[in-house]
Amino acid sequence: MIRFLAKRFVHSFFVLIGIVLVVFSLFQLLPGDPVSMMAGYSTTMSEREEMRKELGLDKPVSVQLVNYLNDLSFISVYEDTPQNEYKYDYQKLFSVNDSQVVLKKPYLGKSFQTNKRVIDVLLEYLPGTILLSLAAMLISTFLGVIFGVLSALNKDSFWDHFFVALSTFGISIPTFVSAIIISITFGYYFGDFTGLSMTGSLYETLPSGKKVMKLQNIILPAITLGIRPLSIITQMTRSSLLEVLNQDYIRTARAKGLGFIKVVFVHALRNALNPVLTTVTGWLASLMAGAFFIEYIFKWKGIGYKTIQAVENMDLPIVMGATIMVGTIFILVNIFVDILYAFLDPRVRIDE
């Protein structure tokens, strides 16, 4: 078990380094001057040069890369100056010559638009994305298991063909297309009947300045985001349950006179849901990455909404930070899925 975890963390570390290198390379290759974006074009040349020096952009690319990796690390090495202590907000561990080994949050730079720390901006928007992903996964899992069970128990019937066709359609339709259709249909045309809006976030500010929670705003984006996993869970539940129902121990249970409900829901379904549960857990990370356009279309304030805004405004530190954060979450969730699957399925021997 320890060997498996160590191997997975080492592999994940190199994947994360790869993501960081790609993000850093894109930052170097993209057109535009970061200093001009931050300072504007009304500043003098000397002020821009001073800002370029402060950002470390006057140094070779290799030195910039080393500094960037140092900034991203929880344990870093900096010169012990008041400016660095204020900039990185670190806790000193021990000294090495004229430098300090420090403990801190990953430093992703500052936003070109607001001059706020990127990590603070992303952490402000992260709960919205997590909440939306969890809501979408709960909806898709609940309905997907029900549809899959009904389809398997009525194999080759009208309902079986209906749920299979519906799930195939759900997998095929692009997410941004379904988002636009659902937003217009249920938020505009039937808005008076549903009581839902085309756009909205978890918290909305009234004209008086007071913030109010509006949970109904999560319904449409969560349903839209859950369409694809719902379709996959439906098909996986159907195929897995059909396979289990043909096992010898199920036929033995029926021969012993166990009732239909007990055979299906106690013996068959419990074993059939192992691969489904693994898929559900793995999809959570994918939903966080796939929520970008959903959040933007529904104006749901999450990391995706903020990242697309940053792309429009050429706020590159926000884009880079969001990419690294989502990649890190994806890696950690995948490690958790591997461990969970080993516990759920005794046929898996992760220590081998």
Write up this protein.
With 352 residues, the chain is mainly alpha-helical. The protein starts with a helix and ends in an 8-residue tail after the last helix. Helix content is 70%, strand content 6%. It has a domain at 118-344: MetI-like (MetI-like fold). The chain has 15 helices and five strands. It has a three-stranded antiparallel β-sheet with strand order 1-3-2. Strand 2 (91-96) and strand 3 (99-103) form a beta hairpin. It is globular and about 85 Å long. Residues 126-341 form the ABC transmembrane type-1 domain. Keywords: Cell membrane, Membrane, Transmembrane, Transmembrane helix, Transport. It comes from Sediminitomix flava. This is Peptide/nickel transport system permease protein. InterPro entries: BPD_transp_1_N, MetI-like, MetI-like_sf.
Q: Can you identify the CATH superfamily of the domain at 118-344?
A: MetI-like
CATH T-level topology of the domain at 118-344: MetI-like fold
CATH class label of the domain at 118-344: Mainly Alpha
Number of helices: 15
Mean pLDDT, all residues: 82
Q: Please state the overall shape, judged from the principal axes of the Cα atoms.
A: globular
Report the count of strand segments: 5
Amino- and carboxy-terminal Cα gap: 9 Å
SSE topology string:
HHHHEHEEHHHHEEHHHHHH
Uncertain stretches of 5 or more adjacent residues = none
InterPro entries: BPD_transp_1_N, MetI-like, MetI-like_sf
Transmembrane segments: 12-30, 130-150, 162-190, 280-298, 318-344
Membrane topology: Multi-pass membrane protein
Keywords: Cell membrane, Membrane, Transmembrane, Transmembrane helix, Transport
